[in-house]
Amino acid sequence: MAQTLTADPHAPTAHGHAAHPTDGSYNYLNYDKTFMSWAKTVDHKRIGLMYMVTLALVFLVAGLFAIALRTELIATNWTNYAAGEQDAAGTIMNANTYNWVFTMHGAMMTFLFLVPSVPAILGNFVLPLHLGAKDVAFPRLNLASYYFYIAGAVLVIASLFVGQLDTGWTFYMPYSARTNGSVTFLTMAIFIAGFSSIFTGLNFIVTIHKMRAPGLTWNRLPLFVWAMYAVSLVQVLATPVLGITMLLLFTERIFGVGIFDPALGGDPILFQHMFWFYSHPAVYIMILPAFGIISELMGTFSRQRLYGYRAVALSSVAIALLGFLVWGHHMFVSGQSAISSIIFSLITYLIGIPSGIKVFNWVTTMYKGSIWLQTPMIYALMFIFLFTIGGLTGVMVGVLAVDVALHDTYYVVAHFHYVMMGGTVIALIGGMYYWFPKMFGKMYSERWAKIFSLFVFVGFNTTFFTQFLLGAKGMPRRYWDYIPMYEHLHQISTIGSYILAVGLFGVLGTWIWGLMKGRKAPQNPWGAATLEWTHATSPPDPHNFTATPVVTRGPYDYYLADEVFLTRNAPSSGDGAAGDGSDGDVPQGDGSGDGAAATVVARPIVRDFKPH
Amino acid sequence: MGETSLWHPPSASTIAPDVDAIFNFVNYVSYVFFLGVLAAMVYFVVKYRRRSATDRPAPVVESKWLEISWIIVPTILVLVVFTWGFKVFVRMNVAPPDAYEIRVRGYQWNWQFTYPEGFTTSKNFTVPVNRPVRLLMDSQDVLHSFYIPAFRIKQDVLPNRYSAVWFEATQVGTYDLFCTEYCGTTHSGMIGKITVVDQDTYNAFVEAGGDVGGGTPEQKGQRLYQQQGCAGCHSLDGSRLVGPSFKGLFGSTQASSTGSHEVDENYIRESILSPGASIANGYPPAMPNNYSTLTADQLDGLIAFIKAQK
Ligand code: HEM
Ligand SMILES: [Cu+2]
Ligand SMILES: [Cu+2]
Q1: Which of A166, B83, B96, B246 qualifies as a FRET site for A194, CA 20 to 30 Å off?
Q2: DSSP readout, A385-417?
């Protein structure tokens, strides 16, 4: 980043891009359209998009598996429970197939989708832009991380041909030492995909330390960057433990070395300790980035400083570190000592509190704001709604005596879906809508996006709220079949999952429509105040900024952010709620903001824009 | 049986009301927090909705008082809940010294109960009401977990290691027993019933070696077919489960790892008592080998029952 520090948008940069148009028509998407230019790209934005497409496919497959599971559960297979008559063929699949499908669903969703999701897609795309940097610190390592991920994914696909993996994504021993050979493939896949996480984490940590634009102090970092920082720490520290666990499992299966299998003198509880030592922090790998997105959305669409910025920023890091000390709450009934259970329960509570504080901060951010209910904000509010339920039920399962009853029932299934799907996935969708104009230079259809968000909301709650009731009444998880008393709730849940599926396909539809037919996006459609909106075109230049931005204020300091408001034609037609914006006139700043002396602006923009 | 409510299964042990009390407390506090958050969100969205694209609200000054209160209040609540949960948890973990002790063994995919009087039952078991019962458990193969929702107890069952759980049933009735640690194909079929009876009925049950009900050998066999979990692996209608169907089995000729055999009484007897000795062709050696405790009477019953499946 040894660039000339310049505030003049038209000054040639050290890289001499002045020859290209700087209005966004020459950008990272179109500067070279060959296949190889994508396959070998080291541009963080392109890598982000490649992850996006790949992860969308993974989500699609794992999601279809989920629909298959729910369909199987739509009716009980007991033709006569009292007489012990059961239909072994199942509603649509037999028990072995179900076990395989739920394992693939869980393993793909966690290891191949959720763990990489936000950092790999939005982190890659947005982080350097947020920092005012040209790229991440190690662009080649970034590309390598993508290919490691692909190698892991290919191994997962290969496992499909070896046998039906049926261990659950948790691979508990000694079952997974004894079942069929696909376990070996999956453990290797996870081992390899782990490198991808570690590379991304390292890269982000160094990037955040070293590549911030002039004036971008730690206190001025967007909260998304803070979240990426925290999550990267966890990735770098925790993933190696998962790698080692998988390697030990592999060694045990291939060479018969007794580590976890009691038949060989090993200890199955040790496996659980090692597994959760990674996998609990991993739930923070999955949720912290979502916190980051929500902070951006709440700030931007409330046009307020994020309430308690410091508390939110530091609590991310605190959560990340404390998260290493609570793995035992997954093992209250495993046979670990009662003392350990008690200590783990206590620490679990202490770490739950910062998450609660974040919710209060987000809500309070709206106080005396100017709240604009566009689709990203709707998803942010949906996130708060769902995550609050997920968090409160987390308090419930953290109570020792209550967890004894609820552990490994559908209550837990519902809880983690509220956090993972209602939390991370909803935040990711909101983030995608938010950065969509920046990524592709196109707008999606606001109306359809809102309609489908309703399907997602209703479908999600119908699917998963019923599962709280099921679980509290004792329905165990990972069951291909259930006793007749649970049938009604299961039916409702399955119907909900179809509504949810319609919603999610609809979301995908709005993006595809936006890509093909969407109106051209202005540089800053949301009137946001972070660098990717104030200083980069939509889509950005291959090198992000045509000049290195200089930062003089915090990320949500609208009252200082003149560049957001200085536009050629804003005040007259700028009625946010009803504004037409339909003239397709996308004003590009041409230096008219140079007068905003206090905030040095490279590319002042744009009025508030109603995208459709 | 306690009546079922929206959130609770029947409540039939001494510990269940305590667990439910915590559950309800946390649930109600959660409603309050959730509705509070929801109400604030809706109110702000309406009150502070954007009026103009050039709205430029003044920054809100953060209130120390507010921030401290929303740290302190949840912390106190959470510590209350923790302590309460901890106390009940300790009670759950310490069995009274005079508890009646039953040995439980989990295996793929059934439960076997050995009573102190020396007899065994599988899948279903019976206990006296109002008397502490301690289950000393282990597994023959992989992890399982022993869960009786009506008693609010659960404990993982491990190979090569004992674990224990205790309860005192308070209501006569029949309750579900589930395996809650995933254990392979028929995990969802590793379920049974626990019957809670008064002490007199229990004494009669012990007298009869765990098999009350009498009847012809075939009827007895029919009961054992259910109780001992044969039903999970052997169908009666010719369909293939884990093992061969019993339909038409008797008198047929069976190819196995030790050659071809006519299926007669002795073949069945041997198949049940030492399943590993000869494995039917085309099937995995999955038949559990813990039926050797069946009495001669019980074997007669099973054989009669299998014979009757034409
Ligand atoms: C389309 C919506 C979804 C539906 C209908 C669905 C349904 C299910 C079902 C039926 C199970 C099996 C429960 C059991 O038998 O124990 C399950 C497990 C699971 N799901 Fe989902 N799911 C959905 C989305 C997701 C998402 C988005 C994620 C993660 C981001 C996810 C993560 C998991 C995990 C980690 C498990 C646990 C697997 C295990 O038991 O090992 N699910 N889901
Ligand atoms: Cu955890
Ligand atoms: Cu099981």
Answers
A1: A166
A2: HHHHHHHHHHHHHHSHHHHHHHTTBHHHHHHHH
Alpha-helical segments (H) within B116-236: 199-207, 217-227
Does any ligand 1 atom lie closer than 6 A to the CB of residue A463?
yes
A417 touches ligand 1 (CB under 6 Å): yes
By residue count, chain A amounts to 612
Q: Is A24 left (phi over 0), alpha (psi -120 to 50) or beta?
A: left
Q: CA-CA-CA-CA torsion for A66, A67, A70, A75, nearest 10 degrees? A: -150
What distance in Å separates the CA atoms of residue B240 and residue B242, rounded to the nearest whole number?
A: 7
Q: Tell me the C-alpha distance between A48 and A539, whole Å.
A: 13
CA–chain centroid gap for A464, Å, is 19
Q: How far apart are CA A553 and CA A217, in angstroms?
A: 9
Farthest-apart Cα atoms in chain A, separation: 85
Contact B30 A574 (CB under 8 A): no
Pocket flag, ligand 1, residue A280 (CB < 6 Å): no
Residues A425-441: tens digit of each pLDDT: 999 999 999 999 999 99
Question: In 3-state terms, what secondary structure has residue B197?
Answer: strand
Q: Residues A185-237: pLDDT tens digits?
A: 888 888 888 899 999 999 999 999 998 998 899 989 999 999 999 999 888 98
| pTM score over 0.90 | no
Structure tokens belonging to residue B86:
């901890």
Q: In DSSP terms, which residues pair with B137 in a beta bridge?
A: B104, B163
In this structure, the dihedral spanned by the alpha carbons of residues A455, A457, A460 and A464, taken in order and rounded to 10 degrees, is -140
Complete domains list, chain B, with CATH: 8-48+62-212 (2.60.40.420), 217-307 (1.10.760.10)
What secondary structure letter does DSSP report for B103?
E
Sheet holding B144-148, edge to edge: B125-128, B192-197, B173-179, B144-148, B153-157
Place of tokens 């037919």: A517
Q: How many CB atoms lie within 10 A of CB B162?
A: 12
Q: What are phi and psi of A415, to 5 degrees?
A: -55, -50
Q: How many residues does chain B have?
A: 310
Domains and CATH numbers, chain A: 37-517 (1.20.210.10)
For ligand 1, atom 22, the nearest C-alpha belongs to A66
| CA pair distance B250, A520, nearest whole angstrom | 77
**A395 vs B15, B81, B179: nearest CB:** B81
Q: How far is CA A382 from CA A90, A388, A389, B65, B121, in A?
A: 36, 10, 11, 28, 51
Q: Among A317, A425, A489, which residue's Cα sits nearest to residue A62?
A: A425
